[in-house]
Amino acid sequence: MFRRDVGHPPARFVEAARLDAARRMLVDSPTPLQRIAYFCGFGDASTMRRAFVRNLGINPVDYRKRFRTTAAA
Predict the structure, then answer these.
(1) Is the terminal CB of the chain with fewer CB neighbours within 10 Å at N or C?
(2) C-beta separation of 21 from 40 below 8 A
(3) Is the pTM of this model over 0.70?
(4) Which range is the signal sequence, renumbered to this chain (predicted)?
C-alpha cells in the first residue's frame, strides 16, 4: 500500500529522508561526517557516502565543499 500511495517503496522513502537530513547538516554545520551519518540513521560514513553517490552523484565531502554556507564554515 505504501508503494501505491507514495510511488516508491518504504526503503527508498527512508533513504531520501536520511539524505535530506544529511544534506542540511553538511551545509549548515561543521559536524564531522561520522556523526552526521549516525544522526541521520546511516550507521557509518561509508554507508552515507554510498547513498550520496548512488542518489546524488557526489560524495558527502564534495557536497559539503560545494554547498556549505559561509556561516557554517
Answers:
(1) N
(2) yes
(3) yes
(4) none
Cα atoms found within 13 Å of the Cα of residue 42, Cβ hemisphere only: 26
Neighbours of 13 (CB within 10 A): 14
Q: How far is it, in rounded angstroms, from Cα 42 to Cα 30?
A: 18
pLDDT of residue 72: 59
pLDDT digits (tens, 9 = 90+) for 20-54: 999 999 999 999 999 999 999 999 999 999 999 99
What is the distance between the alpha carbons of residues 54 and 71, in angstroms, rounded to a whole number? 28
27 is written with which cell numbers?
Answer: 551545509
Does residue 27 contact residue 38 with C-beta atoms inside 8 Å? no
What domains are there in the chain, each with its CATH number?
2-67 (1.10.10.60)
